[in-house]
Amino acid sequence: MNQNFTIEKVNTCKMGVTLTKEGIFVNAVLTGKSRNGMVVYEDDFENGHYIDFPEECRIGNVYQCLITDYDVTGKTYMLHEDGIPVIDPYAKAFEGHRIYGEEHVATATDGLKACRFVSDAFDWRGDKKIGRAYEDSIYYGLHVRGFTKDVSSKIDEAGTYAGIMRKIPYLKKLGITGVVLQPLYEFEEYTKNKLNYWGYQTGFYMAPKNAYAYTDDAVKELKTLVKQLHKNEMEVILQFYFDDKMASGEARDILSYWEQSYHIDGFHLIGNDALANKLARDPYLANTKIWCEGFAEDLVKPDTDMKQKAERRLGVFRRNYMYECRRFLKGDVGMVNSFVSRHAENPLM
After folding, report:
1. Is 231 helix (H, G, I), strand (E, B) or coil?
2. Which phi and psi (to 5°) does residue 21 adopt?
């Protein structure tokens, strides 16, 4: 038997367009009647080079292909259906939307201009999952922009991933062992003259939000933040809002991408508890912390084995419990009985 073989890790969550060592991997759903493919732009986002995908790469409406020997350095792309450019819903990063909120108008001025080619290459040396038991954890929930945007933060990087990194010493001083980041995937926060500040809505789930980046490279900036938090023994939990239309396989691939490419420790899933229960049973996420409002009984059986207790990964997150705890800790009148009742409602996980 030949023993001279090698095994190497590969990213199995190649939804959309992904740069690999072999070339450009494409896994895209396209419904053009006569042509489907990709448009590659140099710098003007208007005059692009059209690449049509051959029919032999098609399975139903899904095109899977590998493009080799094509230099995309400094270039961006869109997918196309019958020659009409369309955004890749699984783009890993975007050009545009650098301005946040009421100052932002989703037009050619600051809208999402095109998708970026993103490589998973990053220096993760020395990085590892913390894997801390819940009993030993203190989580700090924060909004990427809101946490440091106020002038009291006294930093140039206010309201960004880099801004959080500047505040790591402060978090350590508080005794924090993990941060819970409110939605930071790319979404349009200002529509119909209304601001969705918190981000609990659908969006481009695989791309970090450009308006939360201090530099022009949101991907590298966010990965650097995660690595520095881990270096300081802090876990990183991301919040995701999934509606009832989200398929479990698609959600699984999205979360797996963030876990693999960004070394995320866990996810707080909001908006679809049925989906969260399916994901809690998914073997791809078997060593990932998952939180939601409620899990099925077979997932939350009390565990008396100390080893299994330390490896416990599911967590019930109940907003009413959080609100009552806040009021209790503030010293609001008449909160003792209410706090005790809420505490007793929590299952033994």
Report:
1. helix
2. -65, -30
